[in-house]
Specification:
- The structure is a homodimer of 350-residue chains.
- Chain A is built from 10 helices and 13 strands.
- With 350 residues, chain A is an alpha/beta fold.
- Chain A has 2 domains: 107 residues, Aspartate Aminotransferase, domain 1, CATH 3.90.1150.10; 219 residues, Type I PLP-dependent aspartate aminotransferase-like (Major domain) (Aspartate Aminotransferase, domain 2, 3-Layer(aba) Sandwich).
- Chain A has a 7-stranded mixed sheet, with helices on both faces.
- The longest helix of chain A is centred in the C-terminal third of the chain and has 24 residues.
- Chain A starts with 24 loop residues before the first strand and ends with a helix.
- Chains A and B meet through α1, α3, α4, α6 and α7 of A and α1, α3, α4, α6 and α7 of B.
Chain lengths: 350, 350
């Protein structure tokens, strides 16, 4: 068909499997095993459906923006809210990476970065992690069109110290640097305080992991007001209302209940500590994780084999058929019960 | 700042005002004055908040896609679901309008079209409506990179007969033609049956108007499976999960309750009929509307003056400071009570 000549052709991102089968143990997409804060259910019960006939409020004017601003001690004009951090990052690629020079990111990292670069026709160059899967800050000193990396990194779970993050930001004052902190609440230290010092820094976080709201799609970027204004200009050129009313209302509760939030993160970190012991006992090696998953390789059994056998046992973990990491599994930290089931299954496999 | 050189600069779309003040009469953004179907409130009450910790299902696999497919007698592979029709249309611009030739749309039309063209760097050419604000199909016979128009048109409310729509589609088999039917349920005839005949036709609709769910952000495109696949490829390159769980669940109820839907549309059309009489009585002229609004001009009082005086009375309508339409007001059809308040206010102004 002739009209196909005008089609933007892309190789889309492949998200993790979302099996709808009941009773499976789902450790493949880094969801939180605990329910969202109790206030979320309450807010949903109290929300008047009649309100849904009206367009949602602009996110920057909502209680959600106010709650985030109060929580992080920044202004509401320093926050951009989107449909999960994927929406926020996608807007960032479209807004800030309009250079002819390549955007830099690690070779082993969140596998959406090169997809966004492709869909928006942005040149990019990946920088190889060292043999311990760590970023080498000197790689980010060459001229570039922007820098983005997750911290903790995905799918390795390894965290970079703040001084190294700052070194990268400082060496790249001519471009926008994005620290993707999807997993920061599980033991890392956020680069957020650096936004006061660097007008080229954006810190991106999400409600999908530590706040147990993957199903509501809420992410946000924090930076100086000028960066946020540019992001909003592009966002308002794409869709005036990306955040629906339920997301704007329910999200508030997940921010306000700090005790619940901290307790969930603590439980996951404790379970992760035990998982490190149990996996090591069974012959796995893995870098130290500061995320809600462990990126593990077995000393003798190939990752693919373990991945498939676990799936036969209705336990889903994540595996990529990709250079350098094809012998690793990314295992989300579930509840203690889910992890026990995993260990029992592994005992049959390895 | 040097990093600003890499910023995509755009003139964003300006959405209608969303005053948060209580007690106002809001006839400015074409929201439905009636609550969503009762099933929506019920589904919200029954939704288990625990489910929100998980990523949402892929829209094409949900009951929402199934309900739409059943309602329109098409396959689930013929439907693309997005965050309001703005998200759907934005994806369509990005996906299908990659030609060097200009995309065609009317000069007086939904004011987002040129914004999307600008943000995605798509060349475009507007075609002037005739003096009765009608599309001239012969304008769309020149070589182009795609065609898009709303039917009924916005902000005029005028509907084009299906034979004329088909003429445009037939004359443009080499490009994708998009019929934006946001307002079709208020008396127009949908081009949907034509998708079986034309593999280059997309019909876009929304839950924001006739289904009273502007706050949930649900829109959809219908066309042959190949078009939907291309759209999904781009969508999955931007954000794997754009539709949150609440939207996917609540939307179903708005489709299933056909009696409620039809009754709401009927009430709005009846109120529109009375509004035509009342506005004519007060010296307004307007084209025949097949939408949930009337695009009206007063014989002697400038639109801007009426717009501002109504606002002082807490009645919001829409006015554009834009060539050819600067003497028109777009008045959403509200409840009978809201319209009575409008007529009383107009009696003081005109």
């Amino acid at each position: 068909m002739k009209w196909e000549e005008n089609v933007r052709k892309v190789v889309p991102y492949t998200p993790g499997e979302q099996p709808q089968k009941a009773g499976i143990i789902k450790l493949n997409t880094n969801e939180n095993p605990y329910a969202p804060a109790p206030g979320v259910a309450r807010a949903m019960a109290e929300l008047d459906a009649e309100r849904l006939r009206l367009y949602p409020a602009f996110p920057e004017k909502t209680d959600l923006a106010k709650a985030l601003a109060a929580h992080y001690h920044i202004g509401t004009d320093q926050i951009f809210i989107g449909v999960g951090s994927d929406d926020v990052l996608s807007m960032i690629f479209m807004t800030f990476f309009q250079s002819d020079k390549p955007v830099f990111f690690p070779d082993i990292t969140y596998s959406f970065y090169d997809v966004w670069a492709d869909v928006y026709r942005i040149p990019y160059e990946t920088k190889a992690l060292d043999s311990d899967f760590l970023i080498r800050p000197e790689d980010y000193k060459q001229p570039n069109g922007g820098v983005i990396f997750p911290n903790p990194n995905a799918p390795t779970g390894e965290v970079m110290p703040l001084t190294m993050v700052e070194e990268i930001v400082k060496n790249n004052r001519d471009v926008v640097v994005v620290v993707d902190e999807a997993y920061i609440d599980f033991g890392g230290i956020s680069a957020l305080p650096l936004i006061e010092k660097y007008d080229n820094l954006l810190v991106v976080q999400t409600f999908s992991k530590s706040r147990s709201l993957a199903g509501m799609r809420i992410g946000y970027a924090m930076g100086q007001p000028q960066l946020i204004r540019y992001l909003n200009d592009v966002k308002y050129s794409v869709n005036s209302y990306t955040m629906n009313t339920t997301a704007l209302v329910l999200g508030v509760e997940a921010v306000l209940d700090e005790a619940y939030f901290e307790n969930c993160c603590k439980k996951i970190m404790e379970t992760r500590g035990r998982a490190e012991e149990e996996l090591a006992k069974r012959g796995f090696v893995f870098p130290k994780s500061c995320a809600n998953f462990i990126f593990a390789s077995h000393r003798s059994v190939p990752a693919r084999e373990i991945f498939e056998k676990l799936k036969q046992n209705d336990i889903y973990v994540r595996w990529w058929n990709k250079e350098r990491i094809e012998n690793y599994l990314r295992i989300t930290i579930g509840t203690d019960e889910q992890m026990e089931a995993l260990y029992r299954a592994l005992d049959q496999i390895v």
